[in-house]
């Protein structure tokens, strides 16, 4: 990985001037910067040693720093396209995620949670949300569609089991209990079936698939009424 156009602080300059490689080790969180210049913390972490420092072409006093490692979880190929959407502004059209494969749908949810407005007012219990199930061919698609059903295009409402349970406890846009109409549920019923799978977000290996029945059980336990259509 190369850090491009970095303005070295006194602490970073001291680190880079150390002769021992072990003393040039750094650990940092990667932030995303949107069009307004606002920095948003991500879940990406860099742990590496600075190997080469040189003047940057981006401006006087700036440096480029070569690191001997990249981020802990490299982005899937093509992820830049998704992050660029949030860079210029939150997606405004529904189902833009539908043409992506599983790993990219997972990346879509990662961007959505990072840019989720935490100051967003909680909607009161008792509402009904419409879920478009046309493209729920995998569990990642379910989370993309659920985020849009609750919080509009580009919205977030979980991206794996534990995250969904956290959202169902409130403060993520919809307070349970509420009702959800799941349109075209036959798509999920056909695809979210028992078997074994390797989730795109889980590098540990294979495990039981998340089925439609698993999802319905979680929602029912949280007081969510689901109307399959």
In short:
This protein is an alpha/beta fold and 229 residues long.
Protein topology:
Layout: E1 2-6, H1 10-16, E2 25-33, E3 39-55, E4 63-67, H2 79-88, H3 102-114, E5 128-132, H4 139-151, H5 161-168, E6 179-183, H6 185-191, E7 196-197, E8 207-208, H7 212-221, E9 225-228
Parallel strand pairs: 5-6, 6-9
Antiparallel strand pairs: 1-4, 2-3, 3-4, 7-8
Helix pairs in contact: 2-3, 3-4
CATH architecture of the largest domain: 2-Layer Sandwich
Task: Report the CATH topology name of the largest domain.
Answer: Barnase, Chain D
Q: Please identify the structural class as seen in this structure.
A: alpha/beta
For this structure, what is the CATH class of the largest domain? Alpha Beta
Number of strands: 9
Shape designation:
elongated
Q: Helix-strand pattern, N to C? A: EHEEEHHEHHEHEEHE
Number of helices: 7
CATH homology superfamily name of the largest domain: Barstar-like
What fraction strand? 15-25%
The main sheet comes to: 4 strands, antiparallel
Low-confidence stretches: none
- Give the oligomer, counting copies of the same chain as homo and different chains as hetero: single chain
- What is the rounded Rg? 21 Å
Task: Walk across the major sheet and give the strand order.
Answer: 1-4-3-2
Mean pLDDT over all positions: 88
Family: Belongs to the barstar family.
Protein name: Barstar (barnase inhibitor) domain-containing protein
Organism: Actinomadura harenae
Domain Barstar (barnase inhibitor): 128-191
């Amino acid at each position: 990985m190369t850090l491009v156009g970095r303005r070295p602080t006194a602490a970073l300059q001291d680190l880079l001037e150390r002769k021992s490689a072990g003393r040039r080790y750094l650990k940092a969180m990667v932030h995303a910067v949107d069009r307004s210049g606002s920095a948003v913390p991500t879940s990406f972490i860099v742990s590496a040693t600075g190997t080469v420092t040189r003047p940057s072409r981006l401006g006087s006093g700036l440096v480029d720093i070569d690191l001997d490692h990249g981020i802990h979880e490299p982005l899937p190929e093509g992820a830049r396209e998704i992050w660029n959407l949030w860079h210029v502004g939150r997606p405004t059209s529904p189902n833009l995620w539908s043409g992506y494969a599983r790993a990219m749908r997972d990346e879509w949810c990662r961007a959505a949670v990072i840019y989720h407005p935490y100051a967003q007012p909680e909607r009161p219990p008792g509402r009904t949300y419409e879920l478009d199930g046309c493209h729920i061919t995998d569990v990642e698609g379910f989370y993309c569609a659920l985020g849009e059903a609750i919080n509009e295009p580009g919205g977030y409402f979980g991206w794996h089991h534990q995250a969904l349970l956290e959202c169902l406890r409130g403060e993520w846009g919809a307070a349970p209990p509420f009702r959800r109409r799941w349109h075209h549920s036959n798509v999920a019923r056909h695809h979210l079936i028992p078997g074994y799978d390797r989730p795109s977000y889980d590098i540990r290996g294979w495990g039981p698939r998340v089925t439609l029945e698993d999802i319905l059980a979680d929602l029912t336990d949280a007081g969510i009424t689901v109307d399959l259509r």
